[in-house]
Design brief:
alpha+beta, Lipocalin, 23 strands, 8-stranded antiparallel barrel, 9-stranded antiparallel sheet, disordered N terminus, 486 residues
């Protein structure tokens, strides 16, 4: 695939960053002015306590409007810009799936070949998949099932007692699964002998002019990045991920992801045949809610829009034709994209706040006149219908001697895949899970600590000689012990 010359890339990025048409056309043909868009977004973000919002609106398969509002750093009062790097969360999945579809188009992989046949040894012999030993149903799983969320896996094993299992016959029903996407990443990496970042750069980032995007954190992002914020407005910082994760590690910008969506809308990338397959229903969705993903409660509420899943994209159908959509949900990050294929009308919403989902419905209905999004299935509760937030627990912080703090510095393993690292900076301890942002801890006692950026609490156990053996994470009413590594 050809890559545009650098000069062209620069021009496209500049144009993208400055698109602010006086009016844009909505789904039903009516128009809305830039001033009305500004007023709507500004009101909603203030009412729902969302620090920063990015909006891109598409008309006739092209970006017609693109603008950012609010702050990327509330403490420093830094504005969110179209090129501010944000964690894409699960928007990553759709971009990754699009790349896999290109590999299928080039016959590098076959969507219907059982994935275990691509591997040099049985899947359960790999440490990350040893939980599947004894369940031969793993041999039924294909890349198609990974991309349309029918593998039978839980969403994430972290929500499943850190166990990976198959909960129904693969291919038989929809159950959203990041684990399925990660299996696809493992397979295509094995086949191509390339990292996810290399593959994405080659097939998606470069061709689609995504010049500020990567599957991992890069030093160049330090000049313009957004912090994520929780429901209480506490900064979670950026996600400086060191490891590529197709389920959610992509770092991108409003401008870049809008370019990606435009490439799909105007049929530039992938090609027409592959695009049509990608946006063709693979499995109908009857589940009442998308999450918890393994919940079996069903409903007929979405039959009218034929809610379904394609390959990497959710789908529904209205009087305006087919719509494809994807949401991104991570702590401190909430994003949503939906595009109507026939008219080329669509919207991309990106926010740096866990409160972001509360403004989706009003934005979709006001800016796009889109009343079809399955809000209940998505569980996008409007901000003014949410119950009051419970008050934060009050902690009384005390000073602890550095020599005592040093006893706790080390690595604590929860599972083969999850390690929490405790570090000290001056008189303060920090905790970091794998590549997640580190969190500052406050001390309530010599062995009791609390997170200043979340509701988690930590305590340490010592043996008779005074050596730390275990750290216990107290979260969501559970006490999770973690043994200290030698």
């Amino acid at each position: 695939m050809s890559v545009l010359p650098r000069q062209t890339l620069l021009v496209l990025v500049i144009l993208c960053a400055s698109l602010s048409a006086q009016t844009v056309r909505r789904l039903d043909g009516t128009t809305i002015s830039a001033a009305e868009i500004d007023a709507t977004v500004t009101h909603l973000m203030q009412a729902a306590e969302v620090p920063g919002v990015g909006i891109a609106i598409f008309n006739d398969h092209k970006i017609a409007y693109l603008k950012t509002y609010g702050l990327r750093d509330t403490e420093k009062k830094l504005p969110l810009t179209p090129d501010s790097v944000m964690t894409a969360a699960s928007l990553t999945k759709s971009a990754f799936a699009t790349m896999v579809m290109e590999l299928a188009e080039q016959r590098v992989v076959d969507l219907d070949k059982p994935v275990y046949q691509y591997l040099p040894k049985p899947l359960p012999e790999y440490p990350f998949y040893r939980d599947l030993a004894g369940d031969e149903r793993y041999k039924l799983i294909t890349l198609r099932m990974c991309l349309d969320h029918t593998t039978g896996f839980p969403n994430l094993r972290a929500f499943n007692d850190h166990k990976l299992n198959i909960n129904f016959t693969p291919g038989s029903r929809f159950a959203y699964s990041g684990e399925g996407i990660e299996l696809a990443q493992f397979v295509v990496g094995t086949v191509t002998k390339k990292s996810a970042n290399e593959l994405m750069r080659e097939h998606i980032f470069a061709p689609d002019n995504m010049t500020h995007t990567s599957m991992i954190w890069e030093e160049r992002f330090e000049s313009d990045f957004a912090n994520g914020y929780d429901e209480y407005g506490r900064s979670l910082g950026p996600e400086r991920r060191k490891t590529a994760d197709a389920a959610g590690s992509m770092q991108t910008t409003l401008c870049d992801y809008a370019n990606f969506l435009q490439a799909i809308l105007d049929g530039r990338n992938p090609d027409a045949k592959t695009r049509e397959l990608m946006l063709t229903p693979q499995i109908q969705i009857y589940e009442k809610h998308q999450f918890p993903s393994l919940n079996t409660e069903t409903t007929d509420a979405n039959r009218g829009i034929k809610l379904s899943y394609g390959l990497g994209w959710g789908l529904y159908f209205t009087r305006y034709g087919r719509a494809f959509f994807k949401e991104g949900h991570d702590e401190g990050w909430r994003h949503y994209a939906v595009c109507f294929d026939k008219s080329g009308t669509g919207i991309l919403i990106m926010t740096n706040s866990s409160n972001g989902e509360g403004i989706y419905k009003a934005l979709l209905e006001t800016l796009l006149h889109n009343t079809y999004t399955p809000i209940e299935w998505e569980q996008f509760t409007p901000y003014d219908q949410l119950p009051p937030r419970p008050p934060l627990k009050q902690h009384k912080e005390v000073a602890v001697d550095q020599k005592i703090l040093d006893k706790y510095v080390g690595r604590y393993r929860f599972s083969p895949e999850i390690v929490l690292a405790i570090t000290r900076e001056g008189n303060t301890l920090f905790v970091q899970e794998n590549d997640e942002p580190k969190q500052e801890l406050g001390a309530e006692g010599e062995r009791q600590f609390f997170s200043k950026g979340a509701d988690d609490e930590y305590s340490f156990e010592l043996d008779s000689s005074g050596k730390v053996t275990t750290m216990i994470l107290h979260t969501d009413g559970k006490d999770l012990p973690m043994k200290r590594e030698p």
